[in-house]
TrEMBL record:
This is START domain-containing protein. It comes from the Eukaryota. The lineage of its organism: Eukaryota, Metazoa, Chordata, Craniata, Vertebrata. GO terms for molecular function: lipid binding. Residues 1-135 form the START domain. Coiled coil: none annotated. InterPro entries: START-like_dom_sf (IPR023393), START_lipid-bd_dom (IPR002913).
């Protein structure tokens, strides 16, 4: 897996190139070019938002050795429930192309989601005292 910052658009928006395993025949890896946008809460009780979507960027053209994939719309909401607890919810707009990932290997999917959640938890713990965390 590879996760590379391509461009910082502004303080709240960045573009990443992500490479990971695929379930497609003919290739072992797929890639995404993702715009990640964060929105800090506007008022007490509002969630912290992180939104993701695929974008096209000349600096990251498709290559023959990777299957270019697309995220239509995905993201996280982080709700502070108590002083020591935060509820994290993940959303994704799925297409039929996602079905092989879900039906092929539920255990692998669960393990991948677990790794993502653990990474988010680690990030939040490391940055809990920062009021202006960068993506």
């Amino acid at each position: 897996r590879k996760f590379e910052l391509i461009q910082k658009v502004d303080e709240d928006d960045v573009i990443y190139h992500v490479i990971g395993p695929t379930h497609s025949k003919g290739s072992n890896f797929q890639d995404f070019v993702l715009l990640a946008s964060r929105r800090v809460p506007c008022a007490d009780g509002d969630p912290y938002l992180i939104a993701l979507r695929s974008v096209s960027l000349p600096a990251a053209p498709p290559t023959e050795d990777l299957v270019r994939s697309e995220v239509l719309c995905a993201g996280f909401t982080l709700w502070e429930e108590e002083d020591a607890q935060t509820r994290i919810t993940y959303y994704i707009q799925a297409t039929p192309g996602i079905l092989p990932y879900i039906t092929c290997n539920i255990t692998g999917l669960s393990a991948d989601l677990c790794k993502i959640i653990e990474a988010c938890h680690k990030f939040l713990e490391q940055n809990k005292d920062m009021t202006n965390v960068a993506l």
